[in-house]
Amino acid sequence: MKTKLSFALLFLALMAVLPAQSQRRAKGVVSQAVEKPVVVNNVIFMIGDGMGLAQAHALQLATGEMPAMFKAPVIGLISTDSYTHKITDSGAGGTALATGYKTRNGMIGMGPDSTAVPSLLDIFARDGRRTGVAVTCDVTHATPADFVAKNISRKNEQEIAADFVKSPVDVVIGGGLYNFTRRKDGRNLVSEMKDNGFAFFESLPKSGKGFNKLLVLTDTAHPAPAAKRTNYTLAEATRVAIEALDSRNDKGFFLMVEGSQIDWAGHNNDSTYLINEMIDFDKAVGVAVAFAEKNPGTLVVVTADHETGGLTLIHGQNKRNKGVKFHFSSDDHSGVIVPVYAFGAGASQFSGVYDNTDIFKKILKVAALDPK
Ligand SMILES: [Zn+2]
Q: Model confidence over 75-123: pLDDT tens digits?
C-alpha cells in the first residue's frame, strides 16, 4: 500500500514537472539561438569613401560579377549628415564613423566643441588590441586621420602627421611621405617612428608576418589611381596589414581600410576611374571576408562616409556598361543614405536603417568595449 502510494505520488509529481521541464528546455533552445554570446576579437572596418549604393551596383554592372560586398549576410543603411551640414565632408563623415560624434565639416577626431574624442582605434588599443590603417591616399588625409589624429581642420596635414607619432597605431599603409619628412618644423617623423620601434618601407613588403610596428609610405604624395598604381593594390595592403596585426595577436585587432579614391572619381564624374577604384576596394573586401571565414571571432563592416557624385544608373548605350549609363548629377558629395555590409561575428547587429554614429556604438558593443 505504502509502495503503491509512493508510485502514485511519483507519477503525479512527474506529470506536474515534465511539461514545465520540457517547456524550459524549449525556451532555453530559443534564447540560446537569439542570444548566442558573440565574441568579437578582430574588427576590419572598410570605408569606401564616396561609395553609395549606385557605385556598388555600377561595379556589378561593369564587371558582370557579384561584388564581394554583395555577398554580405547582413545589410543596413546609414544616414551621413554632419553636425553642421546635411551633406557631410570626409572629415566629419569619418569622425562620425570613427568616434560616434557628429561634428563640424572639416574637423578630424573632434566633437563640435573642438574637444578631442577617442576613436575606435584608440579604444581598441587601450584594451590591448592591435590597430592599423591601410588606405589608397595620403595617410594624413581625412578618413585615416579621423581614426589616428585630432585636429580642428583636415587641412593641417603636417600636424596630423605628427599625431601618428603619438598615436597607439601599430600598422600604417598608404601614401604621404612628404608630411613626415619635408616639414616646416624640421622634424623627421619617419626617424621618430623608427625610434618608436616601427619598421619603415617605401614599398609594400611581401608579407606583414612578424612585424610588430609597420609604417609603409609608398609615395611622397597620394598613391596613383588603381589603374595606374603599380606599387600595391588595396587587397595586398589589406592582406599585409592583417598579417602584421594577426601574427602578434593575443587579444585581437582593429583595422580600418579605405578605398580612398572612389570619392575622387565621383568628384571627377569619371565612371572608368570609379569602376577601377571599386574593383580595387571590393577585392580588399574579399581578402577581409576570407580572413573572417577562417577566423571566427572576426567582424567585417563595409560602409561609406557619404555618397559622391549623385550617381544614378540610367538608360544609355555604352558597350562597357551594357546599355546602362552612369550619370553623375553633381561633382560634390550628396546627402543620400549609404549601405552597410556586415560579415562574420556580431554582423546581425548591423541590419536596419540607422545613423552613421551608431556604427561606432555597435562595433564597441559587439567587441565588449567601453567608449569611455
Ligand atoms: Zn570628397
A: 999 999 999 999 999 999 999 999 999 999 999 999 999 999 999 999 9
pLDDT higher than 90, residue 324: no
Confidence of residue 340 (pLDDT cuts 50, 70, 90): very high
Task: Compute the distance from residue 330 Cα to the ligand 1 centre, in Å.
Answer: 11
Residue 307 placed within a domain = yes
Cα of 86 vs centre of ligand 1, distance in Å, is 14
CA dist list (Å): 71 to 60, 126, 257, 282, 301: 12, 33, 18, 11, 12
Give the model's pLDDT for residue 19. 43
In a domain, 106, yes or no: yes
Query: HSE-up of 79 (CA within 13 Å, CB side)?
Result: 11
Cβ atoms within 10 Å, residue 49: 29
Overall domain count for the chain: 1
Instruction: Give the pLDDT band (50/70/90) at residue 250.
Output: confident
Cα pseudo-dihedral 253, 69, 229, 237, rounded to 10: 10
The residue ranking higher by pLDDT, 321 or 190, is 190
Choosing from 90, 119, 260, 271, which is the catalytic residue?
Answer: 90
CA 143 to centroid of chain Cα atoms:
10
Is residue 201 domain-resident? yes
90 in active site: yes
Q: How far apart are CA 112 and CA 109, in angstroms?
A: 10
32 domain residue, yes or no: no
Pairwise CA distance, residues 74 & 282, whole Å? 17
CATH number at residue 215: 3.40.720.10
Cα 109 to ligand 1 centre (Å): 17
Q: Structural domain of residue 153, as residue ranges? A: 38-366
Asked if residue 186 has pLDDT above 90, the reply is: yes
Residue carrying the nine cell digits 618644423 = 185
pLDDT higher than 60, residue 352: yes
What CA–CA distance (Å, rounded) separates 273 from 265? 5
- Core vs surface per residue 193-210: b (16+ CB within 10 A) or e: beeeebbbeeebbeebee
